[in-house]
Amino acid sequence: MPRASTRTAVLSAGLALIAALGACGAEPPPRPGPLMAARPDPRPRADAMLSQVMNKISERGSVHSSVRGSLGVVGELTAEGAVRYRGPRTDLAFEGQTRTPGNRSPQHLSLSIMDGVGYLRTPLVRPAPDKPWLKITPGGADFGDKLLGPALDQLHDAVDPRAAFTGVEPATRIQTSAPDMVDGKPTTRYELRIITSQAADVADDPQQRDRFRQAADAGEPELGYQLWLDDSGLPARFAADQEVAQAGEVSLTSTYRDWGVPAEIPVPPAGQIGVFDALPPQAQQPPR
Q1: How far, rounded to the nearest angstrom, does the alpha carbon of residue 50 sit from its chain's CA centroid?
Q2: What are the boundaries of the signal sequence (predicted)?
């Protein structure tokens, strides 16, 4: 299954030195002139196309999907799920299996995100014997929040084009586009790049701005995604591959079906939700 890569085909705008026009003869060599402005990005802007896609997604209101890939320290993921759109909110739920490095036995995983808060159930990060669910609040203070909060944010972006591009459409470029097939149906595959420094300037959400600024400062000028659109302009597949602080690589590919079919997003009872103060040994990465 195709996966997006953020480190290939990256085009970064640069500054070039211009030499002053020098006279001929025995005069001293010309001194460098002022820096030129950045060259215009030759790639097409994606904001018009993305605006149409976002409107279509919001009109349908929900979708079911199959997800494959990596959730960093949580492990390799194979899951079935659903996404529900409520105004600006995106809620999602998945049921599947993960397999961590060095662990041959797959582990069941349940994940829900409601109103931006995540609920994770897996034996690898079980908070307490009688509390199988871990609550993950982005920006929270406990260990689970700090460890998995960044991955939770990225998970939203990795499984949902609307979450990935809303607010940063003007900073997104179309690297390439080409005909393709998804599950036997014709689509158009778009290689999209979010320019991190521009996204940090235009994003409305403070957390979103911080993430893009951190990526830009860390030397990652662009974030890459792949988006397949069907003949109606709806996503048929979406892929993202990103490095997330403290969580490792989050690399997911979602294949969509049943746009508009109602989706239920379950939330666990409060009495089954716990926290933990350190990463359990079975969830730690093996030594290299």
Answers
A1: 15
A2: 1-25
Q: Which CATH architecture has domain 46-279?
A: Clam (2.50)
- What residues contact 165, with CB distance under 8 A and at least 6 apart? 46, 50, 54, 172, 192, 194
Q: What are phi and psi of 183, to 5 degrees?
A: 50, 40
What are the pLDDT digits (tens) for 46-70? Answer: 999 999 999 999 999 999 999 999 8
pLDDT digits (tens, 9 = 90+) for 188-247: 999 999 999 999 999 998 888 998 999 999 999 999 999 999 999 999 999 988 766 555
Determine the distance from the C-alpha atom of residue 287 to the mean position of all C-alpha atoms in its chain, rounded to a whole number. Answer: 27
How does 240-250 read in b/e, with b if 16+ C-beta sit within 10 Å?
bbbbbbebbeb
Report the run of H or E that residue 151 belongs to, with start and end. Answer: helix 143-159
Q: Say how far apart CA 154 and CA 210 lie, in whole Å.
A: 13
What ranges do the domains of the chain cover? 46-279
Closest CA to 124 of 75, 78, 68, 67: 75
